[in-house]
Structures are given as C-alpha cells and as structure tokens.
Amino acid sequence: MTISQIMEKMISCSNGNIHDIEHLTHVWTYAKTIGELEGLDRETQFILEVSAITHDIACPLCREKYGSASGKRQEEEGPALVRAFLADTDMTPAQIERVAYLVGHHHTLHDIDGLDYQILIEADYIVNACEGRYDKETVRAFMEKFMRTGSGRRLARAVFQI
User: Fold this and answer.
1) How far is the first Cα of the chain from the last one, in angstroms, to the nearest whole number?
2) DSSP single-letter state for residue 134
3) Which domains can be identified in the chain, with CATH numbers?
4) Best exposed site among 22, 61, 133, 155 by fewest CB in 10 Å?
5) Per-residue pLDDT tens listing for the chain (162 residues)
C-alpha cells in the first residue's frame, strides 16, 4: 500500500472531521519535509510518513470514550488501533510494530530512540503550535529543549519568525 493509499484510508476513517483531516495532513507534510531534508533512508522515511498520517488515530475513540483526546489517552489507545488499521496493508509486522510504537509515544518527549520518532515529535509540535497560536517564547523554549534536527529548527524558525 502506498503512502497516498494510506492517506486516503485515514481520511475516510476521519468521518468528515475537518480538523482531524487537516491536522494529519499538516503533520504529514512537515514530517515528510523534515525527513527528506535530514536524508532519512527510504525505509525510515516510509515509517515516519505512515506514523505521521496515523499518529492521532485514537482521537475519535478517545473523545467518545473519555470525553477528550488527551495525549496520554491517545498513546494508550493508539497502538492497537493502528495495528488493526494497517493489518490489510503489505507492510511487514516489524514496520507495523514500529508505527504502533511511534503512535503510542508521540506525546512522550523523553527516551526518543530514532530520527523517525524525533521528527514525528517536531512535526506534530509545529502543527499544534500553529493551531494553538502558541507565543514565540513558548515555541522558542520547546525548540531549545526538544528539537534536535536542523531542518525542524529551521522550519520552526521560519514559521514562527523567531
């Protein structure tokens, strides 16, 4: 299954929730861009892009089940959902497990164990900061503490003019 097919499937699963669809497409765009600028190998780039597309797969369930889509709840519910979502693709079990791991940790800012994970954190933060209209000091503090890729830092500086 191609990235475009996974994107189409995820958009269909979003049940017309425009915010969710726009969020996942924006996170995917930043993740894809950062990954390519950082020179990820094809396999890691693929895992990163699938993770970016599916990172908030648990949001609808969490809103229904818990009344909110908190990061903690998304991380708890997401891995099982993403495994089921990707089960009918031609992805290997190892690829699916890595995506499930990333989806299950995309709000965890410590023990980051790969560039795919790091870039997913950075891309999701940039989009969340745009959506939440974070002030420049908040973004600058996050960049200094958590952003590790040169490309992610350059993009954040360009977007937020810092």
Assistant:
1) 39
2) -
3) 3-160 (1.10.3210.10)
4) 133
5) 999 999 999 999 998 999 999 999 999 999 999 999 999 999 999 999 999 999 999 999 999 999 999 999 999 999 999 999 999 999 999 999 999 999 999 999 999 999 999 999 999 999 999 999 999 999 999 999 999 999 999 999 999 999
Angle between helices 71-86 and 42-54 (to 10 degrees): 120
pTM equals 0.96
Q: Are 91 and 16 in contact (CB under 8 A)?
A: no
Q: CA dihedral in degrees (85, 89, 95, 101; nearest 10)?
A: 0
Query: In the numeric block, which tokens belong to residue 25?
Result: 């497409």
